[in-house]
Amino acid sequence: MPDLTGKIAVVTGSSSGIGRAIALRLAASGAKVVVHAGRNQAGADSVCDEILRLGGESQALVCDFRDRDARLRFVAAAWEIWGGVDYWVNNAGADVLTGANRELTFSEKLQLLWQVDVEATIELSREIGRRLRDSQRDAAAIVNIGWDQSERGMEGDSGEMFATTKSAITAFSRSLARTLAPQVRVNVVAPGWIKTSWGETASEIWSQRAIAESLLQRWGTPADIAAAVEFLVSPDSAFITGHVLPVNGGLNHAHLQQRTE
Ligand SMILES: NC(=O)c1ccc[n+]([C@@H]2O[C@H](COP(=O)([O-])OP(=O)(O)OC[C@H]3O[C@@H](n4cnc5c(N)ncnc54)[C@H](OP(=O)(O)O)[C@@H]3O)[C@@H](O)[C@H]2O)c1
């Protein structure tokens, strides 16, 4: 594990799932972490409690990213806590697959994903990118979260929604890497099927499909993604920017091909 002592990290959407694992991993490596929740204050507080047990330091902030003005206030508030930021991870994503949002129409789901995943990632990245560059932080990094099948595409409502939104994040991130170089590195982690809230309740058919689509023949875990994010913020990846790193156990093209034949 890299030594991130003295570094300050913000992980959006870290009240559960992948974000929670990222926050815990960065804290275990010594970073102070701003833990963010959209609504789930209790979830964020429990992550902070775990960080405290690890001997680390953290602070919880709640902000609904559907609110445009609140996004900029969130960056300012996160920056204020310890007088700056070194690493910013845009992980927050609207859950349109479980809970009440499952009942929304396709357009409503798309709008929600657009606001929370795409617009918020773009606006938060631009604002923090400007601050990181102007303050000349040493070795600053932004990591955004995409999806491994966004370029290839996937059939159905979920494929159409997630390919559109996650491809937008990836395209934006590649451009931002050019804007912010050489001061700030910007990379994307593109997860495959990761067992979080949707994966826990997925049907047997979907579960088998998730496993078959990975060459390593298993679901991914939040810890798999956290390890990749940590690599991309740490000095171990100092010569990498504008890169998209799929973390999916290797996409099983032969299986995908059979399914569409
Ligand atoms: N799981 C997968 O297979 C997979 C695959 C590819 C990409 N991803 C991406 O990975 C990221 C994390 O996914 P996950 O599976 O860990 O999901 P998750 O457990 O549902 O976590 C989503 C996080 O986003 C936050 N969030 C949701 N709506 C928000 C809003 N309106 N404003 C601010 N924050 C909001 C949630 O906060 P609250 O609950 O506190 O509101 C939560 O902390 C997402 O961007 C997702 O699209 C996941």
Automatic annotation (TrEMBL):
It comes from the Bacteria. One of its GO terms (molecular function) is oxidoreductase activity, acting on the CH-OH group of donors, NAD or NADP as acceptor. One of its GO terms (biological process) is fatty acid elongation. InterPro entries: NAD(P)-bd_dom_sf, SDR_fam. Belongs to the short-chain dehydrogenases/reductases (SDR) family. This is 3-oxoacyl-(Acyl-carrier protein) reductase.
